[in-house]
Amino acid sequence: MHIKEESFFLCAFLDELIQNVNQLWTINKEYHALEIRLDKQKESLIETAYKCALVRYHVDIPIIFTLRTKEEGGFFEGNYMSQMK
């Protein structure tokens, strides 16, 4: 197994990525993984899933989806039990 000496990831909110959808392909060249923050999403699950699929179409690197609470510096106003539902 070859381990890269340097590894970089991009952390962005989903709507920021969608606003720049025509340039998403550049992420593949500069980063090794993409973290998509979902804690600001106010849209329906269907709309969010559509946007995630659109990003996945343009990005070939691994994607990590996160939902950060206020305690973690995010915007989600709930607890871990409500995140699991």
Fraction in beta strands: 15-25%
Distance between the termini: 37 Å
Shape: globular
What's the helix-strand series? EHHEHEH
The biggest sheet amounts to: 3 strands, parallel
As for the number of domains, it is 1
Average pLDDT for all residues? 85
Order of strands side by side in the largest beta sheet? 1-2-3
Low-confidence stretches: none
Number of strands: 3
What oligomeric state do these chains adopt?
A: single chain
Radius of gyration of CA atoms, rounded to a whole number: 14 Å
Question: What structural category arises from helix and sheet content?
Answer: alpha/beta
What portion of residues is helical?
25-40%
Count of alpha and pi helical runs: 4
Structural commentary:
This protein has 85 residues and is of the alpha/beta class. It contains 4 helices and 3 strands. The protein has one domain. The chain has a 3-stranded parallel beta sheet. Strand 2, helix 3 and strand 3 form a beta-alpha-beta unit. The mean pLDDT is 85.
Spell out the key features of this protein:
single chain, 85 residues, alpha/beta, 4 helices, 16% strand, globular
Give me the secondary-structure topology.
Layout: E1 9-13, H1 14-19, H2 27-30, E2 33-37, H3 45-58, E3 63-66, H4 80-84
Parallel strand pairs: 1-2, 2-3
Summarize the structure.
With 85 residues, this protein is an alpha/beta fold. The chain has one domain (9-84).
